[in-house]
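Have a close read of this protein, sequence plus structure tokens, and explain what the tokens say about the fold. Thanks in advance:
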Amino acid sequence: QVQLVESGGGSVQAGGSLRLSCVGPSYIYSNRHMGWFRQAPGKEREKVASIYTGNGFTYYVDSVKGRFTISRDNAKNTVYLQMNSLKPEDTAMYYCASWKVNENNYWGQGTQVTVSS
């Protein structure tokens, strides 16, 4: 059963922007790490960005620093990934995830992002 629901993927040209959203129930949102992973065909899944919903501490993989911004809205149990200056190499299936040490992990169904040159 899907616990996290993503939206906002699509197709854009290089240099464009997209905003991904991920919403889940409070028990898999509050005081947990939430983040975005991506997987391109033939490549391993990589962590793109994450945020700790308790204090807002963020992480970004080097390749997206300065272009992507992760944020949260605790009132809506929602995490966002604002993606600017998109590049063809950003093309992938993007997955939202929620995790916490010694507790269950949760994943969304994925949303496709395609960037054309």
In short: The mean pLDDT is 94. The two ends are 36 Å apart (CA to CA). The chain is about 0% helix and 50% strand. Residues 99 and 105 are 5 Å apart (CA to CA).
